[in-house]
C-alpha cells in the first residue's frame, strides 16, 4: 500500500514538473508594433500613427496584411524589406519623411527609425510597412 502511494506521488510530481515547464519554457512569438511617419528630419511630431499586430493580423494599420507579410519575409528586419518595385523610379526632390517602427517582433524588441528623401523613396524601400 505504501509503495503504491509513493509511486502515485512520484508520478504526480513528475507530471507537474514536465507539464508545468512546457508552456513556461515556450518563447513568445507575439508581434505588437507601432509605426509612425512624420514630415521632416526629426520624426516629431508624427503625422500618422498606426498599430500593427501579426500572427494573427490586426491593428489600425491600413495595409496590415501586406505589411505583416512583408515583415515576415524580411524576418522582422526593416532594412531587409524588398520594397515596392513599382515605386523605384522616384524624383530627386528632397521632402524628407522620417519613420519609426517600435515594439515587439516575434517576442523580441524592435526599434527602427530612418529618414528617407521623400515618400516615393520610402515606399520603394519599405513597401507597405509605412503605408499608414
From TrEMBL:
Organism in which the protein naturally occurs: Crossiella cryophila
Protein name in the entry: Subtilisin inhibitor domain-containing protein
Similarity field: Belongs to the protease inhibitor I16 (SSI) family.
Top-level taxon of the source organism: Bacteria
UniProt keyword Signal present: yes
Entry keyword set: Disulfide bond, Protease inhibitor, Secreted, Serine protease inhibitor, Signal
Signal peptide: 1-26
Stored InterPro entries: Prot_inh_I16_SSI, Subtilisin_inhibitor, Subtilisin_inhibitor-like_sf
GO cellular component terms, semicolon-separated: extracellular region
Self-association state and partner proteins as the record states: Homodimer.
Molecular-function annotations in GO: serine-type endopeptidase inhibitor activity
Localization annotation: Secreted
Amino acid at each position: 500500500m505504501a509503495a503504491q502511494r509513493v509511486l502515485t506521488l512520484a508520478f504526480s510530481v513528475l507530471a507537474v514538473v514536465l507539464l508545468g515547464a512546457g508552456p513556461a519554457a515556450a518563447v513568445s512569438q507575439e508581434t505588437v508594433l507601432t509605426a509612425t511617419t512624420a514630415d521632416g528630419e526629426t520624426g516629431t511630431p508624427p503625422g500618422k500613427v498606426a498599430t500593427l499586430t501579426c500572427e494573427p493580423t490586426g491593428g489600425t494599420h491600413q495595409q496590415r496584411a501586406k505589411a505583416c507579410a512583408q515583415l515576415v519575409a524580411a524576418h522582422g528586419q526593416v532594412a531587409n524589406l524588398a520594397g515596392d518595385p513599382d515605386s523605384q523610379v522616384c524624383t530627386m526632390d528632397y521632402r524628407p519623411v522620417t519613420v519609426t517602427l517600435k515594439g515587439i517582433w516575434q517576442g523580441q524588441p524592435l526599434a527602427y527609425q530612418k529618414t528617407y528623401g521623400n515618400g516615393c523613396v520610402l515606399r520603394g524601400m519599405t513597401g507597405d510597412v509605412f503605408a499608414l
